[in-house]
Amino acid sequence: MRRRITRRVLRAALRRVLLAALRAHDAVLGIGSELERRRARVRLKERAQRWAMRALIVTGALVILGVLPWLVWRGPYVIDGEYIDRNELAKGSAALVTGLRTAVVAFTAALGAGIALLYTARTYRLTRRGQITDRFTKALERLGSPEIYVRIGGILALEQIVQDAPEQAATDAARVLGHFIRDRAPKVLDAVKPLTDEPAADVQAALAALTRTESRTHVDSREKLDFHGLHLDGADLTHADLTHVDLHGASLAGADLTGAMLTDANLSEATLTDANLSRATLTDANLSQAALAGARLAGATLTGTGLAGATLTGADLSGATLTRTILVGATLTGALLSGATLTDVNLSRATLTEASLFMATLTNARLDQATFKEADLRDADLSCSRGLTLEQVTSARTDEDTKLPATFYVSTGASVPIPRSPDGKRPPVSLVARARRNPDA
């Protein structure tokens, strides 16, 4: 009860002192600006908070010093007085008193050790914060150097801060690296900076530092990389973590994105001509209207990827996994899809002229109005595809191992059953077409 009263009195006194100081300070700064008055108030509040903390610490120490002797001397009688004879301390009673007093002293020592540990931890945090601030300042100074090797040193220093510092400091360092890349890398439509076949050394170093998995795990997950419209041809982004990155309209022609993580990335209208995306993860990525001519996507994962209207002429998608991928109106002329798995893929109005689907599996794929002229469908499994017409298949190259749907659709909308041969296989499509044209053959 006394402690509560003491705390209330101290708090009330501190409030009065603070209000009086604020009024006096406002009177002195009566002719000053509003901004100056606000700054003064903030400084006074911070100072008052520091003094309040010190007052509480001193009060707590005084209370402990005052209560501890009383607990040591009178505590045993308060706790177990009914078992202790105050006039004649028997041997057992004396041991009980000594044990209780020892427990009080041990508890106080443990409490003091805990307070000291908290103070040490706070001191360590403040010291570390100061060190990070100093490192951050020096790294920023290096980034502004005209010498490229000094700038690269600053980038490496910021990378260490991203990986070592707490989340907020790591996020701030990552933002600086992102701003550096956007400032130094030329824009796709930039008429001033020359467009090169590969990024400058400092830009490449910043890209590597910012997209490493070790760096991304320390940055706030809400912080997204923004590289839209940048010219990053030939960039080395091997195994880079580009989750949620914005590369809308960017140019990454010839870039190496082997094994890169591009989950939920925005690559719409981006240029990825001859880029290497082998074994890359493009789950829920947006590549609509993107240019991927000659790109290598062997073994890539394209789950829920949007490729509507994209150009994949001559692209290599052999062994790739395409699940719920949108390829409506996409151009895959001469594309290599050998051994690829296409599940729930939408290829409506897609152009697959001279594309290779040798041994590819198309499960529940939509093929409405798709073009298969001279496409290689040998040993391909189209038995569960939808919207496939006889005209589409007859324009492609097939063999006796091509697995076709039970029925086809002709241009009039009627279905034509495909008979099975005695050994259980469907006859080649060319024979079926001839049989339809010449029933007596």
TrEMBL record:
It comes from the Bacteria. Keywords: Membrane, Transmembrane, Transmembrane helix. The keyword Transmembrane helix applies. Pfam families: Pentapeptide. Residues 415-441 are annotated as: Disordered. InterPro entries: 5peptide_repeat (IPR001646), Pentapeptide-BTB/POZ_domain (IPR051082). The chain crosses the membrane at residues 51-73, 93-119. PANTHER family: BTB_POZ DOMAIN-CONTAINING PROTEIN KCTD9 (PTHR14136:SF17). This is Pentapeptide repeat-containing protein.
